[in-house]
């Protein structure tokens, strides 16, 4: 069984917000169980008032939305998990 | 209509949910790819992507000739949209806040809205005027109005007010393809902005392909038998919340989302009123001489014998105040809607 | 020639205005971090701060009396402070309190203080026509009062601005139009939306002089504004002034300024008209101790106003129905409608009668 791939907030952190560590999950566009394609926009996070798209790192199925919509997180936190399609 | 029901089925099957702003942008982008004559102009619509994210990402794909920042000169650029439309293009012009219509109303209601008629139909004005409406975030009297009734009152404009992402996309496709001027009024609170959180309702599944929602078809967002609630925009969601609160008490409200004011789907309202006999109209515009009065008049004209009681909730003819307790007082709340439904039911 | 006392006054107004914006920024962000929600916290709604604009308000308003009229745009705090608007009541208004200038009905973009003839419009350039009207009233009444309309550089492409210039010009009215050029109309750089680099050239189409102050040097603003206001007061008609300022904060709080080059932001922050004015004071023999004292006094006044404002009561919801008219009609227009539900009905009826 393949392992879940983390959607890592640090990997999509905006370059001009290096001095900030707090983020806010503004929107999810998928639910747990949704099929996603690599590169697809699955959510929207906000750092320093700037919105950044959260994209799927792989094809697969969303197994967990770790940070709920409206939730806060720290840079490096996993915000979602995706089970890669075989 | 057949197309729409097909789309609804597909929509329920899609995994993807969008915010209203993203759904709007998707429709605009699709139309711009299909038709070189479509372009978008407004203040802060290029690099900024629209103050309310109405054009996010479009500059990257279409460039500054088709996603065009313009000076703070609403008379000039809204009037220019009229001229470009009369020349056969399909401009979309954004009025940043509907409250700003005051500086440019002549172009809107004397040119855009009337030129088709005054030319005896020899001119048409196939443009879309997009504009942000609504309050609930304490921005006071010059930045919080909806003015739904003002635009619907003046003949010659089609007036669209989406309340969900699904509707926003379909209505935007229809607006751009329409040969008449369409005023597309999007509520800031429904756009899914990170900095102005939406209620949960407006984010819906949205098919990736294009689809249209015909104007003049209200949508029954909740079916019920006891009381008819007719509303639009943000208050669709407040009415749905109120209706679900009342479920436990055995009150079964029907919530009708008008979706377009011009044309207005009178039949759907009358059908519902014939069933329930009780009508509540909820509007975020000023009460007098507006949407609530019009809906009640149509109900009275078409189904007077079936009507036992009517009520309306709207902004009580005061400018929108700034302070939170004052704005909360005048903007019909979920609780006030629930109380009004309850009173009608008793 | 500017006097040392005038330098002191301008300095005090400018440090008051700067510190005011810094403190409001802090208060505004309460309840809005890390998730920025515009409707949360003690100051909701949009907030347009004027840090970097201080030289304009201070350098112009120092020439004005209480009976002179000023209209300000959506970014009004520094102008209000320089015009002598009651700081406590203004702050209470921004916090949406009952004892605010407008009892919580107007908010920060709509500050009104009749005691010093100060008013705002949150709509671009729409403070210009009322300023022309104030000047018209002064002329008709044969007083020597003048009016000043402040507007941003983005506003000089608006019809209301051009129409005001013409009306003021053709009737030779005592009004001065002050363009605060901060180079940006929200995200749109001036060169992309305005056909002239010097906004005072707009005067060329009318029979009025135009003058640009190419820096935010308060003394240079003082001198140019002095000429224009004296001209108006002497019955010689309107003037169009443009003064260079800097937008040190975003267009509004919450504006991440992603569109704005980092170099432009840092450039705006480097130039500090307040520091420059402090140097002028020193050159006039004012000791550092006294400069510090002025600054501390200004800070205390701001802190006191904010502390006072936060203690003020919020308006009662029933007050929403008051002040629609000066002479309210005997019967509220909402009678029998909206007012039917809950406690609102009494409030509407009572409020309408007051």
Automatic annotation (TrEMBL), chain A:
Gene3D superfamilies linked: 2.40.50.100
State the SUPFAM superfamilies in the record.
Single hybrid motif
Q: Does the keyword Ribonucleoprotein apply?
A: no
Q: Domain of life of the organism in this record?
A: Archaea
Q: Which InterPro entries does the record match to this protein?
A: 2-oxoA_DH_lipoyl-BS, Biotin_lipoyl, Single_hybrid_motif
Domain Lipoyl-binding as annotated: residue spans: 4-83
Would I find Mitochondrion among this entry's keywords? no
| Keywords, comma-separated and alphabetical | Lipoyl
Q: Which Pfam families match?
A: Biotin_lipoyl
Question: What CDD domains does the database record attribute to this sequence?
Answer: lipoyl_domain (cd06849)
Record's protein name: Biotin attachment protein
The protein's organism comes out as Haloferax marinum
**Upper lineage ranks?**
Archaea, Methanobacteriati, Methanobacteriota, Stenosarchaea group, Halobacteria
UniProtKB/TrEMBL annotation, chain B:
What keywords does the record list, in alphabetical order? Oxidoreductase, Thiamine pyrophosphate
MF terms (GO), sorted A to Z: oxidoreductase activity
Q: Does the keyword Oxidoreductase apply?
A: yes
Looking at the keywords, is Transferase present?
A: no
Where in the numbering of this chain does the Transketolase-like pyrimidine-binding domain appear?
18-193
Checking Gene3D superfamilies in the record gives: 3.40.50.920, 3.40.50.970
What this protein needs as a cofactor is: thiamine diphosphate
Q: Name one GO biological process term.
A: sulfur compound biosynthetic process
Spell out the Pfam families in the cross-references.
Transket_pyr, Transketolase_C
Protein name, entry field? Alpha-ketoacid dehydrogenase subunit beta
Q: Which organism is it from?
A: Haloferax marinum
Q: What is the lineage of its organism?
A: Archaea, Methanobacteriati, Methanobacteriota, Stenosarchaea group, Halobacteria
């Amino acid at each position: 069984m393949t392992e879940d791939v983390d959607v890592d907030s640090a990997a999509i952190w905006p370059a001009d917000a290096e001095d900030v560590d707090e983020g806010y999950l503004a929107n999810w566009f998928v639910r747990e169980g949704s099929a996603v394609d690599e590169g697809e926009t699955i959510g929207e996070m906000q750092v320093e008032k700037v919105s950044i798209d959260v994209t799927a790192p792989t094809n697969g199925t969303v197994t967990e939305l770790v940070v709920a919509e409206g939730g806060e997180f720290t840079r490096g936190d996993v915000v979602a998990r995706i089970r890669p399609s075989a | 209509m057949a197309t729409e029901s097909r789309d609804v089925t597909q929509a329920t099957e899609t995994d993807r949910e969008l915010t209203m702003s993203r759904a709007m942008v998707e429709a605009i982008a699709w139309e711009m790819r299909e038709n070189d004559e479509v372009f978008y102009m407004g203040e802060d619509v290029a690099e900024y992507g629209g103050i309310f994210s109405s054009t996010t990402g479009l500059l990257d794909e279409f460039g500054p000739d088709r996603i065009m920042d313009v000076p703070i000169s609403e008379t000039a650029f809204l009037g220019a949209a009229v001229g470009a439309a009369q020349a056969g293009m399909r401009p979309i012009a954004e009025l940043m806040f509907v409250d700003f219509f005051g500086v440019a109303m002549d172009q809107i209601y004397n040119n855009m809205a009337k030129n088709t008629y005054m030319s005896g139909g020899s001119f048409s004005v196939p443009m879309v005027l997009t504009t942000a409406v609504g309050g609930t975030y304490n921005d006071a009297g010059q930045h919080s109005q909806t003015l739904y009734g003002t635009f619907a009152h003046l003949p010659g404009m089609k007036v669209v007010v989406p309340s969900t992402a699904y509707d926003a996309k379909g209505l935007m496709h229809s607006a751009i393809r329409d040969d008449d001027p369409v005023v597309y009024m999007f509520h800031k609170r429904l756009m899914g902005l990170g900095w102005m959180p939406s209620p949960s309702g407006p984010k819906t599944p949205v098919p990736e392909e294009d689809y249209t929602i015909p104007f003049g078809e209200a949508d029954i967002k909740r079916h019920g038998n006891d009381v008819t609630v007719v509303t639009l925009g943000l208050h669709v969601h407040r009415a749905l919340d109120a209706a679900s609160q009342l479920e436990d008490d055995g009150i079964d409200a029907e919530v009708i989302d008008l979706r377009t004011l011009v044309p207005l789907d009178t039949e759907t309202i009358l059908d519902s009123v014939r069933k329930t006999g009780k009508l509540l109209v909820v509007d975020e515009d000023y009460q007098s001489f507006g949407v609530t009065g019009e809906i009640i008049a149509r109900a009275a004209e078409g189904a007077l014998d079936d009507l036992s009681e009517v009520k309306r909730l709207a902004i009580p003819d005061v400018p929108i105040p700034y302070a939170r307790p004052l704005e909360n007082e005048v903007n019909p709340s979920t609780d006030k809607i629930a109380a009004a439904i309850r009173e009608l039911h008793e | 020639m500017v006097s040392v006392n005038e330098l002191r006054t301008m300095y005090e107004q400018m440090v008051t205005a700067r510190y005011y914006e810094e403190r409001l920024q802090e208060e505004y962000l309460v309840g809005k971090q890390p998730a920025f929600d515009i409707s949360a916290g003690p100051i909701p709604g949009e907030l347009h701060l004027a840090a970097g604009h201080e030289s304009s308000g201070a350098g112009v308003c120092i020439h004005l009396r209480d009976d002179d009229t000023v209209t300000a745009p959506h970014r009004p705090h520094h102008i209000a402070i320089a015009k002598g608007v009651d700081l406590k009541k203004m702050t209470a208004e921004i916090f949406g309190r009952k004892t605010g200038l407008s009892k919580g009905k107007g908010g920060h973009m709509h500050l009104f203080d009749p005691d010093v003839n100060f008013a705002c419009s949150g709509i671009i350039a729409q403070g210009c026509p009322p300023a022309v009207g104030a000047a018209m009233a002064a002329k008709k009444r044969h007083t020597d009062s003048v009016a000043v309309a402040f507007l941003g550089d983005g506003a000089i492409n608006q019809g209301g601005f051009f129409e005001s210039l013409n009306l003021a010009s053709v009737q030779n009215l005592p009004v001065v139009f002050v363009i605060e050029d901060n180079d940006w109309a929200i995200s749109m750089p001036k060169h992309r939306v305005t056909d002239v680099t010097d906004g005072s050239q707009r005067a060329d189409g009318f029979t009025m002089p135009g003058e640009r102050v190419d820096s935010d040097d308060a003394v240079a603003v003082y001198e140019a504004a002095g000429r224009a206001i004296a001209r108006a007061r002497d019955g010689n008609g309107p003037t169009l002034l443009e003064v260079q300022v800097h937008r040190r904060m975003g267009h509004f709080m919450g504006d991440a300024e992603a569109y704005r080059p980092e170099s432009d932001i840092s450039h705006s922050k480097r130039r500090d008209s307040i520091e420059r004015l402090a140097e002028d004071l020193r050159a006039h023999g004012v000791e550092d101790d006294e400069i510090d004292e002025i600054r501390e006094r200004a800070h205390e006044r701001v802190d006191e106003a904010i502390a006072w404002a936060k203690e003020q009561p919020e308006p009662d919801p029933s007050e929403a129905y008051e002040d629609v008219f000066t002479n309210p009609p005997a019967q509220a227009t909402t009678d029998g409608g909206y007012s039917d539900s809950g406690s609102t009905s009494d409030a509407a009826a009572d409020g309408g009668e007051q």
